[in-house]
Design a protein that fits this description.
By secondary structure, the protein is of the alpha/beta class. It has one domain (about 65-375): Aldolase class I (TIM Barrel, Alpha-Beta Barrel), CATH 3.20.20. It is about 45% helix and about 15% strand. The protein has a 4-stranded mixed beta sheet with strand order 9-1-10-11. It has a 4-stranded parallel beta sheet with strand order 5-6-7-8. The two termini are about 30 Å apart. Bound molecules: ligand V47 and iron/sulfur cluster.
Length: about 375
């Protein structure tokens, strides 16, 4: 496969392809890092087939033909939120909390108990930033989940939720994070990153934690031995330069800590929010972005397409553009994307659905845990 691609690069060389793009292909072949300027050139001039060939080469050299998924469910404690991100279709202000939901401790524990005897490995806890749900409340929730099911990995709280919780508790980031770790929190999801550059951040989510604050929270978690994910909300008002700036800041932190598990581009969905007038990115733009992130983020082992947001068919296409992870079974436990207009109105996939989706594009499905340890490799149409 690799040889074929770089024969193709040789052919492209003779066909007069942009010299800069050829240099990038050469760098990718030699496993060299591309610069910000080169990343920008890929956005400006890289055609879909060219980007796909390079990104697939990178994914193949890291993971061969393997594509990962996990068995997980979400708990969304509330959609009441003190912040007012313009792209958000999900949140309700505290004064309108009667239109939203606020789950009690018992309701959340019941959600965990519902999975007794089922082979889920991860609970993902994420929600709005509720002014009355504080650090102590969430420490108690985590402790109770762990007491009930010690083997369930708890991945919880975006840096936005954490920043608010720690400030309210008057604790430093390190103190707050240590407290959550002691309670049983094991890793952080990647949400709240949006676009780091202040030109865009001021326009789409001016009132929540800024880039430095987001990065500090993840760096602190990594220092304490926890892992985390990183996201980028794309396809709205940002320019290519902003995407590159965002990915570059993440790449720099990953050089320093090595604590990120995966990078997850999140496609802006435009239903029922204050940015509904902005058209959504096309599938071609989605695929180009996934491919470029695979090429640019050379120190991130995993690139995830989150299927409840992208829709399962587009997510399947990304597997030919550098993606090696599809997140999980979800079991219809998240509303963030259905409320924002995703095709997936009741997101749930059995392991069999996920395996079919992966084998249909000639890849090998692998069930993983949160930290990408392999649990089961599904060979040759074996039933999930
Ligand atoms: O930060 C909100 C995004 C994120 C919209 O770490 C929207 O494994 C598109 O980060 N259109 C929260 N996106 C969810 C998140 C996440 C999801 C799945 C897996 C992981 C992981 C993390 O959702 C927010 C924001 O970027 N979001 N509204 C919207 N209208
Ligand atoms: Fe609140 Fe998160 Fe929605 Fe922003 S994206 S308004 S922080 S729930």
């Amino acid at each position: 496969m690799t040889t074929e691609i770089f024969n193709l690069a040789d052919i492209l060389k003779q066909s007069g392809l942009d010299k800069g793009l050829l240099q990038i292909a050469e760098k990718v072949k030699n496993k060299e890092r591309i610069t910000e300027a080169e990343g920008l050139l890929l956005f400006e001039k890289g055609e879909l087939g060219f980007l796909g060939a390079l990104a697939n080469h990178v994914a193949q050299s890291l993971h061969h033909n393997k594509v990962y998924f996990n068995r997980n469910f979400h708990i969304e404690p509330t959609n009441v939120c003190v912040f007012t991100c313009n792209f958000c279709s999900y949140s309700r202000l505290y004064k309108h909390r009667d239109d939203g939901w606020e789950l009690s401790m018992e309701q959340m524990l019941d959600m965990v108990r519902k999975y007794d005897g089922q082979p889920v490995t991860e609970v993902h806890i994420v929600g709005g930033v509720h002014p009355k749900m504080n650090l102590d409340f969430f420490c108690e929730l985590i402790q109770k989940i762990k007491a009930h099911r010690p083997g369930l990995h708890i991945k919880g709280f975006t840096a936005v939720e954490l920043d608010y919780m720690f400030r309210k508790a008057k604790l430093s980031v390190e103190e707050g994070m240590q407290k959550l770790k002691e309670a049983g929190l094991q890793s952080l999801p990647g949400g709240g990153a949006e676009i780091f550059h202040p030109e865009v951040r001021m326009e789409i989510c001016a009132d929540k934690v800024d880039a430095d604050g987001w990065l500090l929270i993840h760096e602190t978690a990594h220092k304490l031995g926890m892992h985390s994910n990183a996201t980028m909300l794309y396809g709205h008002v940002e320019k290519y330069e902003h995407r590159i700036d965002h990915m570059s800041r993440l790449r720099n932190l990953q050089d320093k800590t090595g604590g990120f598990n995966c990078f997850i581009p999140l496609k802006f969905r435009n239903k029922d929010n204050d940015m509904s007038h902005i058209p959504e990115a096309s599938v071609v733009e989605d695929l180009r972005l996934y491919a470029i992130s695979r090429i640019f983020m050379d120190n991130f082992r995993n690139l995830k397409a989150y299927w409840p947001m992208l829709g399962r068919q587009s997510a399947q296409l990304t597997l030919a553009f550098g993606v090696n992870d599809l997140d999980g079974t979800i079991d219809d436990t998240t509303k963030i994307y259905s409320m924002a207009g995703s095709e997936e109105q009741t997101p749930s996939m059995s392991t069999e659905n996920l395996c079919d989706l992966i084998t249909a594009v000639g890849k090998i499905p692998v069930e993983r845990d949160t930290l990408y340890n392999e649990i089961k490799v599904y060979q040759d149409k074996e039933l999930a």
